[in-house]
Amino acid sequence: xxxxxxxxxxxxxxxxxxxxxxxxxxxxxxxxxxxxxxxxxxxxxxxxxxxxxxxxxxxxxxxxxxxxxxxxxxxxxxxxxxxxxxxxxxxxxxxxxxxxxxxxxxxxxxxxxxxxxxxxxxxxxxxxxxxxxxxxxxxxxxxxxxxxxxxxxxxxxxxxxxxxxxxxxxxxxxxxxxxxxxxxxxxxxxxxxxxxxxxxxxxxxxxxxxxxxxxxxxxxxxxxxxxxxxxxxxxxxxxxxxxxxxxxxxxxxxxxxxxxxxxxxxxxxxxxxxxxxxxxxxxxxxxxxxxxxxxxxxxxxxxxxxxxxxxxxxxxxxxxxxxxxxxxxxxxxxxxxxxxxxxxxxxxxxxxxxxxxxxxxxxxxxxxxxxxxxxxxxxxxxxxxxxxxxxxxxxxxxxxxxxxxxxxxxxxxxxxxxxxxxxxxxxxxxxxxxxxxxxxxxxxxxxxxxxxxxxxxxxxxxxxxxxxxxxxxxxxxxxxxxxxxxxxxxxxxxxxxxxxxxxxxxxxxxxxxxxxxxxxxxxxxxxxxxxxxxxxxxxxxxxxxxxxxxxxxxxxxxxxxxxxxxxxxxxxxxxx
RNA sequence: CGGCUCGUAGCUCAGUUGGCAGAGCACGUGACUCUUAAUCAUGGGGUCGAGGGUUCGACCCCCUCCGAGCCGACCA
Length: 576
Known about the structure:
Oligomer: single chain
Number of helices: 20
Strand content: 15-25%
Low-confidence stretches: 506-510
Number of strands: 20
């Protein structure tokens, strides 16, 4: 075994692994382990007066998280899928005969924090009152050869928390093991999608899957990731949205379809944006955006109750209340509320002047819609903490939304804003094929002017709309953002298991050939490098006697069991 | 893309007008048959993110680079 580059603790664990094998114990057994209970069930169902039968013969498995060894008796804490429970080991119970190896050697010396074991025994309460399992027999299920971060806790205070965000995100397994609140946030993420899914299924809508690899990207304004299909010799894009495909299914006669869609946008990353993220898109025929607002309220309120048993959710310093009905403002009303200015009847040049007065950054290329959006973004969005619907957006920003039934220049669109961030976006969908084509053509003009995010004209989609799409309400709801709110998370990285990270710096690439070319064995070349001799020049300048000592010492200290080089060999390297 | 902060032992963090690299936990050895941040004794463990510069001497000062976090810009 090659121990070079390992820490002392890693070497000790590998030695323990070997010793287990020498004792005839397989540290990675193949057989099923007959777990019959979880830690939490024991804690929940323990009853001093009327002990359930099955707690007298429990079999559970998990990871050793702490150990307190007191000679011939010990306590440990076992962490399984549902929590932790204390284990009590006594030498003479583990080893009923003369041979005390299983306790003295295997348990005390060869097991470590982080190892996965299975135990059988019975539940009891210690003199200090803690519900525990008295272990009669234990089985090594997986030896851990990488030391765990040690997190301690007393009276609810966490000591030495594993908290460096970089390490946590790069090594999520460790994060999940030692930070229970991380695990719980992810469990809540799944509970959230389960709640949403059953809500939609109960209404009879069909969950579907549509292409992630798309020949044309559409349905949102964003830059895509681009890839290539070899057989078709064709450029494909990772979808930025699935809207255009779901609408084709509406045309096809499904009256309610939805998809939990992983979308990809090739843009900046921050604590609200990850390049891949999840949206739930829903399309329902014969409905409009007013109907959809009611559905969103009902759905999100139910999710909050399913997760927290309450419509109120603590989020940082705020308490968000999802109780229906939510406040509703048109975009014009919202701007009037937060700036005091009524822009509903302004001409473009008047609007431009108001924007300048408000110190909103605008430039000449912006149309009326963009300026309004800019004012809203600067003055209104961050003020909206409680869930609020903003309705009736300028037409320029919304090429897939139906024109407003009564106000010129607007579309039937709403967003829900919560905690100062958009959580969903919905329209009465545009189903007029002539209008839709014109809107796409306007987008093409924008693209020609250099707007990288303008939508592409999708003939296949237009063809579908031309067949005839029923009036339809559509919704996209950001699952990551909603999860952040529901789990009191400040960063999207806390609700995505494996957030995108820059590649870690490569471990220094050492080309041992510079030494092996001198006739040095590879293993010694690596040790020389580890010992700080990183170039031939350094080697040549070294004292041969000292170098020999270093190598032999290294061999001994790390128990490598190598044949030491002779002093002559070492001076031979230096003089070669 | 810009500003600020950070990178030292497995983990959390100290550190020094610039003078042999520290603590707690973890780990090794010994003691202890109801502990719980177990305790007591004792011992090991470091390319101080990488590279360059200044200096007799750099973890520390300067430059470049890499990675991370926060804020802002851009963007949904």
